Amino acid sequence: MSERRHLAPAIGSAAVVGLVGLAGLVGLAATGIACGSSTTDPHGPYPAFAFDLPRVVDKGGPRLAHADLVLFVDPNDPRKPAIEQFLLLLGASQTWSDTTAEYGVGPPGAITTLPMPTMPSSFATSDLEAAIAQSVHDLRFKNASAADGGVGADAASSTTMKHAETLYIALLPPTATVTNMPCAKLLGYHTSVLATPTDEVPLAIVEGICTAAQDALTADDLTLHYLSHEIFEAVTDPFPFSAPAWLAVDDAHAAWTSGLGGFSEIGDLCLERDVPSAGFPLVTVGTAGALVTFQSTWSNHRAAVGADPCGAIEGEPFFLPMPALTERAKLNGALTAPAVTIATGQTVIVDVHIASDRATSDLTFFVYDVASKVYQHAEELTFTADRVTVRNGDVIKLSVTRARPPRLPTLLNGSAFAVGLYDESGVQQVSYGFAAVP
After folding, report:
1. Looking at residue 409, what is its pLDDT?
2. pTM across the whole model
3. Whether residue 125 sits in one domain with residue 99
4. Are residues 326 and 296 in the same domain?
5. Which of 48, 175, 316, 365 is 20 to 30 A (C-alpha) from 191?
6. Environment class of residue 92 by beta-carbon count within 10 Å: exposed (0-12), middle (13-18) or buried (19+)?
7. Helix, strand, coil proportions of the chain in percent (round to 5)?
């Protein structure tokens, strides 16, 4: 089996959720972007700067238009009934439609639960992928061909059939020891596996949460959060390595991909959204009125009209800091995108524009170096801001100094950085910039 996989890194603060339907978009525009200027508000008009937001790009691969969901779970896992109910409610909800319809994905079909394959007490994710592939082989392909050759081929051949009818999901128990997936660092990922040398199927794996609650969330809330993250990404990009679909952002915003650790699917782009005072808002889904927790995901439709692309939080304005990058530089390979060029030891001032779609209280600015915060490498960039308390229309003068060359200059011709804002209730918004080397 291949080690290829698409990870959902637990970087920074836990991301939040609370996605409203597109019907909510109309109200947001009416009270925000369309409100025009005010003669009494010194911080108007809103927004003072147009929101500069990426869009997720369709790479042309298949997506799971009406996929069945098959959950592999330990029969003795106490979370099993809640997870099954969660999948039923989420799949039938308006939330599912609002999240996936614009990406060509409809409601899921049947939802089935199967026992997790027997695993040793300690194993690597590649071992689990192989075990799931064998289970899928036995379920669907064992009698398809007398010469199918078994499972576990390293790479799909040119004649591989990509099966986009079913998403397989593996929920690891909290007691599992995954040697290459340490707790609280990589909480889930999705990939595809070969059930036979010519039959490829999508797979999402979610780690059993083995840490204390974060941001007022229980471990069960966190499980649902990361489960929803992987499901939404897997149905919109089921074969991320062999036939990517909704995988990356437009070239002009490639810094967002670098800033998020190399991943920019619809769940990744909302990872840095946070409401620490309230945890992840509970959202009503399903006709039974049950409350479940899920992660919000990126909407190209909302971003295109300047609304919060991760879904509006009721009563909260949308605000965003945006580095004004006036140069174009090579980020990697042939990709050229907006950037600022900074040599080692040099300091350059970058303007950061502050915009909100309506009046806010004071917003607090922060900035961080992606190499040290996301990748845990030595710090490549340091920063000094002329102010940290801002509102719509303000411009921060951000001094950016290159402390050292990029760690992998052959892969990335510079260093990503994040600029963020949070308000008095803890709602956080982040965007990204890129400092290239000469």
Report:
1. 63
2. 0.83
3. yes
4. no
5. 175
6. middle
7. 20, 30, 50
